[in-house]
Prior knowledge:
Elements: H1 22-32, E1 37-40, H2 47-55, E2 59-62, H3 66-80, E3 84-88, H4 92-106, E4 111-115, H5 134-137
Helix pairs in contact: 1-2, 3-4
Amino acid sequence: MANSTTENTTTLSLCDDTQIDGNALVARVLAFSGVRHMFGVVGIPVTSLATRAVALGIRFIAFHNEQSAGYAASAYGYLTSQPGVFLTVSGPGCIHGIAGLANGTANAWPVVMISRSCDQRDLGREISRSLIRLPPLSPL
């Protein structure tokens, strides 16, 4: 309970004694870094990250496809001079997001794409979800 003589503020700590998963850690880092908006398409590999980001006060703006989310994030970066962050599902979602990422990068607008891979136990089961994303993204 807050002391009545002190201002009641919410603080965000990146490090505490509790164990958290990777999604919660990424959401905390984004919030701690001042990210207030996130664009994207939620799906099984990234729903938890989006949910945790929203719980920390980051507004999630949903799109029908990753390309649109990427363009919105790059435009946000241009208009605000703050990194536009967008979230994609793995595999084809990541590939579709490259257009928006490339747009922001080519114009020197701050943009960040977050795309989660499938669980290790699912590697090789569904090739479209376990595409290696590094080679197409390395120039960006």
